[in-house]
Amino acid sequence: DAKTTQPNSMESNEEEPVHLPCNHSTISGTDYIHWYRQLPSQGPEYVIHGLTSNVNNRMASLAIAEDRKSSTLILHRATLRDAAVYYCILPNTGNQFYFGTGTSLTVIP
Amino acid sequence: EAGVAQSPRYKIIEKRQSVAFWCNPISGHATLYWYQQILGQGPKLLIQFQNNGVVDDSQLPKDRFSAERLKGVDSTLKIQPAKLEDSAVYLCASSSSSGRYNEQFFGPGTRLTVL
User: Which residues of chain A make contact with B95, given a CB cutoff of 8 A?
Assistant: First the structure.
């Protein structure tokens, strides 16, 4: 299974952009990069995913390095509701997820 | 579209007792997953079903845990007998298929406390 490395925690001021990094140096050419987040007392929820090109949706943007060994989840304007644990995941061939410990994002009012 | 349903939401039992959790995935989703999330850790996959067949149960402690998915829809996860270290949130997730581009949809989880 391809492994990911994320910082344990990050802080951001409300209404400012947040860049959450993820390293995945052993990624293979067919590995998708998924981001999920888990709000307190809830199950994880999908944020965004991509393969090679940068991706945008209503929640966030995903910037993928040209060599694909790292990626960055971008929240354009952090709100208090974005305080959560963010997981960067490379599913294996059966779409099985290894979550790791993720990055705990604190948003400061 | 209705999400993944789980019940009960909370359960408190004493060690050596039995407990069962129920999951109803999103309609039409062929793949179903059970995860265990211990406090302070990320979810850990226990078992994956494709329709009513087991794809992977390598992380399931089979001496005490069992799971089934009859008719390829609902699923139950059972622990018998429970140990203190089984205290965790048990999450059920489903996806339309097992392709690596597929989103997994998670239920709210069942919080189990073993005393």
Answer: 95
